[in-house]
Amino acid sequence: MKGPRPAMLAGALIVLGAAVFLGPGYAALCAGPVDTYPAIAAARDQAAQEAQAAAPASAPAGLAHIQAGALSLVLVVKQADYVSFPAHVAAGLALEAGRCPLSSSGDQWRKAAGHAWADWPAQVAAAGLARTLGRFEGPERTLALLRAYAASEPWHAAKLARVIAAFQGPSVGGVRQ
Fold first, then answer.
1. pLDDT tens across 18-28, in order?
2. Kindly report the CA angle at 109 between 113 and 76, in degrees rounded to 5?
3. Is the Cβ–Cβ distance between 143 and 156 less than 8 Å?
């Protein structure tokens, strides 16, 4: 072989690109809890206000409407359990593997818990919580945090109740409670 194959070169560029773009995001997640929903919602609302303020048939108004609609779609997809649960699980596992603070990885597991739509995701989230927040805050404080989450976001209450039941089980992910 005289030189790197194009696929190997492309793969190396993808990994390098991912490291450049994802590195700061990982560092922010590792540093502490991050909530992207408010930032995206604020950008959507700003775009909607700009659309209303612009002349109705103008290009800026059209672009602002498109931006607001696209950001609304991002929020809908972001909140879908089948998207959010695996994303938060992956983030939780990555933060654990990177030896980030338990509060940071635990926050991702807490968010995963809010999207645990069935028993198996509830078990996965409960095990992640036991390894992270359960160790950092203790089991009782972790349960209190989950109950507070359910009270503040009642649309997640049934899912969080499922995770609470799994967390209180005799054994969660091999970690005795």
1. 444 456 666 77
2. 60
3. no
